[in-house]
Structures are given as structure tokens and as C-alpha cells.
Amino acid sequence: MNIGSDNLEKRDCYDLEKEIELTRQKLNSIIVEKNENLLDQEVIKLSEELDELIVKFQYIKSIQDTCLMNLKNIMGTHSTFYYYGKDHLFANMIQYIKIGIDNNEVIYIYMKPELYKDLKKYLKNFGIYDKHLKLQSIKQLIDINKTGGVKKLKEKVEFVVEEEIKQGYSGIRWIGQPTYAIEQNSKKDFLDMESNLTEGLRHTKASLLCIYDYYDYINNKKVIDEEIIKKSLSTHSHKLHKFFLKEQII
User: Fold this and answer.
1) Count of alpha carbons within 13 Å of 122, Cβ hemisphere only?
2) Residue 132 and residue 60: Cα distance in Å, rounded?
């Protein structure tokens, strides 16, 4: 099973390249058909379509070049992922975790025990066992933020990273489930921590991915409600999308 593709970020541009070429060919044909009358309305219309395609191509290419990060180099990022059901979550987490292990990063996991148990079953199919993972609560980050704000939060992150580097790791790849964090702490304390975490992680050898239960948001709003989703869009530096981290642009 291929759990990654280096060509994913090229797909949209590749499709547009083909459309641009087809439109160019149509334009050439219609110009011949119209006896090279470049002011003919059909010629003008196709020329306008070609203009629009080129602008769209340039925009997408720019976004891909400047705003997408592959999953091999994500240190210092505070990212979010919206999953709809655990199968959708696991399909993304397997690659995310495997790449971290290949980078010699320690993988911190903080999620509901039953969800973690199911995740481990999938991971074992890809040769990823408990020795690669560490259960690590984010409560310590929430508590530090309550008493010391972003300054102490950053100091805590740097301390934890330094301890793992002493153990031979290159850094920390942390995965946290907001639903579990809110249930174990409080909504306010979690959101306060989230608002400082992007700065707390910046320029460190740690990353943290928050996995938001979008099924709950759409169907129940039992824990993940409108306020949490809205704030998640502004408190994270990146979003996991199509196996890349995309910079959040608000």
C-alpha cells in the first residue's frame, strides 16, 4: 500500500497545464477558421479563457511553492486536521506518524484511550509499534499557560524537547485530540492554551497537530462546537490537507 505520493501537490497544476494547452489549440484553430480575424468574438472569448487559466495556474503554483510544507520538515508548526470518522483520521495519521519516525522524531500521542487503541492496530500493520510512541498529556501545557502565559509555555516546550534530544531523538511530533483535552480540562483553558501555542512552538524542534472531530461538529456539537471550530481557524499556523501542511491564511 502506498501511503504517500510526492506528486500530490503537482496534481492541480498538471490538470491546468493540460487545459491550457487544449485551449491554446482551440484558439489557434478558431483563428484559422476566422481567417485570422483577431477581433472576432469567438477568438476574443477563447483568448479571455486562456488568460483566466494562466492566472489560475500562476496562483495555484504560487500557493504550492510558498504555502505547502511536506511532512518531513514540520518543526515549529502548530497545525490542525479536521477528521470525519476514525478511518479518515487513521488514513492520514499513519503517514504523518511514519514520516516522523523516519525523521527520528519521538511521537507523542494524546487522545481518548479507545481511539488510541484502535490507532495502534492500524499502525502495527505498517511496522509501527509501541516503542515508537509515547502517551503524553497536554495538560502540562494547559497548566503552564494558565499560570505563565506564552513565555512559560515556550520554556516548557523547549525543556521537553531538550529532554528528548538527550535520549537521542531529533525532536517531537505531538498529536493531540481537542475533544479529549476539553473533557479532561475545560473549554476555556484549552482555547487559552491554543491561542498561545503557535508562538510557543515557533523556532523549536517540536510540532503539534490538533485533530478536530468534524463528525461531532456537524452532527452533535457535543464537544466540538461553533466557537471551537471558528477559533481553530485562527489559532493554528498550518492545516493538514492532502498529506501536506498548508499555511493558514485568514
Assistant:
1) 19
2) 36
The burial class, CB within 10 Å (0-12 / 13-18 / 19+), for 178 is: buried
Closest to 119 (Cα-Cα) out of 86, 158, 157? 86
User: Grid coordinates representing 68?
Assistant: 505547502
- 127-184 tens-digit pLDDT: 898 888 999 999 999 999 999 999 999 999 999 999 999 999 999 999 999 999 999 9
CA distance 95 to 161: 22
Taking the CB of residue 50, how many other CB atoms lie within 10 A of it? 16
Q: What is the dihedral of CA 66, 203, 249, 61, to 10 degrees?
A: 10
- Nearest one of 216, 210, 212, 250 to 233, comparing CA atoms: 250
- Angle at 239 (CA atoms; ends 182, 221), nearest 5 degrees: 35
At 245, the pLDDT band (50, 70, 90 cuts) reads: confident
CA torsion sign, 68 to 74 to 77 to 79?
Answer: positive
How does pLDDT run across 196-230, given as a tens digit for each residue?
999 999 999 999 999 999 999 999 999 999 999 99
Q: Per this entry, what is the length of the chain?
A: 250
| Residue (of 98, 246, 87, 234) closest to 175 by Cα position | 98
> pTM for the whole thing?
0.74
Q: Are 3 and 243 in contact (CB under 8 A)?
A: no
